[in-house]
Amino acid sequence: MKKCPSHKIEILKTRKIIFCDKLKFSWKQDPKGYFLVEIKDNKICCGFVNNKHKMIIEFRGKDPDKIIKEIAKRKLCNLENMGYIASELMIAKDCLKSKKKYIQR
Questions:
Q1: For 56-86, what is each residue's pLDDT tens digit?
Q2: Beta strands in 1-105 (DSSP E)
Q3: Fewer CB within 10 A of the end CB, N or C, for the chain?
Q4: Is the pTM of this model over 0.85?
């Protein structure tokens, strides 16, 4: 495994700072398709559905990080939708851990 870089970082006083708490983002479907997430058999199930509404691949596991990395590796969606699905998978993980019902937003 490669070692993380440990170079000194300069934080510019002139850097642009974006306050994100009040930003609103409308949902835009990715041209390739969309994701459905559920908890089933004590696992996170994340299915990718194409624009013909056919689930063509499903990722299953308890670790959302591994699911996210596999989705990224396969380039199934754009970055905006990757942010959305990553957020949903983390919420699903929290629900799985706390035994709460998960509802995709």
A1: 999 999 999 999 999 999 999 999 999 999 9
A2: 33-40, 43-50, 55-61
A3: N
A4: no
